[in-house]
């Protein structure tokens, strides 16, 4: 890869300078243009099918990769593309905290909550082990593990800046995870009869295995309203696991650096251990939980975070060398597929063990 997230070291001080802003604008505008095309594609899907099978986030990174394959952005575009891929994604992660409320966790009940937490923890550990056993690097293994176990593309996007993943890692993870996400929506309802699942059981299964909240809705609609309600609840609690996982990974991030730690040998301070956007996430989550972030503000903040994430994915796609993905493609496909099958097995076993009716 020539140009991508890992090439960006844009500092906050530099961004503030007027001259720096003019340098960033072309690349930002290019990323936004790809984003608008992606949102348009998602809109066409919604009109045709009622919901998007391939979200704008995935379309953005694929369009960016396609454009990068045909045309490599020159020096004029690089700074803005790198800024969009890194800083805008960090802002989006921080804003996601406003969507997190402890009341959602409490509402799920202690038994189901414990089961969800245990499922996510076991799935992350096992998925990481599978990816490493297949010879994948540590960082892409973490992306695959978190994407499969928590919330697909959103988890990959949130974890990536914490562990220092580059554009190729992210593009590989998202591309193959997105394909399986669509197959899950289409194929999961076929398991209802063979497994003899009730509406509640199927809702829990969908909530534990399907990647995105809209996809959970699409997968549970055939099983009725009860399945949709429980599936959405389980999925939301599963998404909330992203916060603790990201914070934990931020503490381990120095070990994932290519140089094995701080280049200068100096002690890490708190700011380096926990990046600013994670602190922002935790602050907004705390404010939301105590009622200082009003309900009316949550939806606009979440939409802003979602939009910034799509812009970041477009920029990441513009920095991807598809030849790198080709070299790891088969191993990533195997890792994602095996991890998802394992998650399905764990989830079905859990449903049987806790005796859901």
In percent terms, what proportion of residues is strand?
under 5%
User: Per the principal axes of the C-alpha atoms, what is the gross shape?
Assistant: globular
Q: Which stretches are poorly predicted, pLDDT < 50 over at least 5 residues?
A: 1-16, 258-273
Helical stretch tally:
17
Instruction: Note the gap between the termini.
Output: 51 Å
Per DSSP E runs of 2 or more residues, the count of β-strands stands at 0
Helix/strand structural class:
mainly alpha
Structure description:
With 357 residues, the protein is mainly alpha-helical. The protein has one domain (5-354). It contains 17 helices and no strands. The chain has helices spanning 12-16, 18-49, 56-70, 75-95, 102-107, 110-133, 138-163, 167-187, 192-195, 199-209, 213-220, 225-240, 242-256, 270-273, 276-289, 295-318, 322-354. The radius of gyration is 20 Å and the shape is globular. Residues 1-16 and 258-273 have low confidence and may be disordered.
């Amino acid at each position: 890869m020539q140009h991508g997230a890992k090439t960006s070291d844009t500092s906050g001080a530099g961004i503030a300078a007027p001259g720096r802003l003019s340098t960033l604008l072309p690349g930002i505008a290019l990323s936004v243009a790809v984003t608008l095309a992606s949102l348009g594609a998602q809109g066409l899907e919604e009109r045709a099918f009622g919901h998007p099978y391939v979200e704008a986030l995935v379309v953005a990174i694929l369009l960016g990769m396609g454009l990068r394959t045909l045309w490599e952005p020159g020096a004029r575009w690089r700074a803005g593309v790198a800024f969009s891929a890194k800083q805008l994604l960090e802002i989006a992660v921080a804003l996601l905290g406003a969507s997190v409320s402890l009341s959602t966790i409490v509402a799920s009940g202690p038994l189901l909550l414990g089961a969800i937490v245990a499922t996510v923890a076991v799935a992350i550990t096992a998925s990481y082990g599978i990816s490493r056993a297949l010879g994948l690097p540590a960082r892409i293994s973490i992306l695959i593990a978190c994407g499969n176990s928590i919330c697909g593309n959103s988890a990959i996007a949130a974890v990536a800046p914490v562990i220092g993943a580059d554009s190729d890692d992210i593009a590989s993870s998202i591309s193959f995870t997105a394909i399986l996400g669509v197959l899950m929506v289409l194929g999961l309802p076929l398991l209802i009869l063979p497994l003899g699942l009730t509406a509640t059981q199927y809702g829990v299964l969908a909530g534990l295995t399907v990647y995105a909240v809209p996809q959970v809705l699409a997968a549970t609609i055939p099983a009725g309203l009860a399945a949709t309600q429980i599936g959405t609840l389980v999925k939301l609690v599963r998404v909330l696991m992203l916060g603790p996982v990201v914070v934990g990974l931020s503490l381990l991030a120095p070990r994932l650096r290519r140089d094995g730690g701080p280049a200068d040998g100096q002690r890490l301070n708190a700011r380096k251990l926990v990046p600013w956007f994670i602190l922002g996430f935790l602050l907004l989550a705390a404010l939301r939980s105590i009622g200082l972030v009003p309900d009316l503000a949550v939806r606009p903040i979440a939409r802003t975070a979602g939009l910034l994430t799509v812009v970041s994915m477009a920029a990441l796609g513009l920095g991807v060398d598809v030849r790198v993905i080709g070299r790891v493609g088969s191993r990533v496909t195997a890792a994602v597929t095996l991890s998802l099958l394992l998650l399905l097995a764990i989830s079905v076993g859990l449903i049987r063990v806790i005796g859901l009716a």
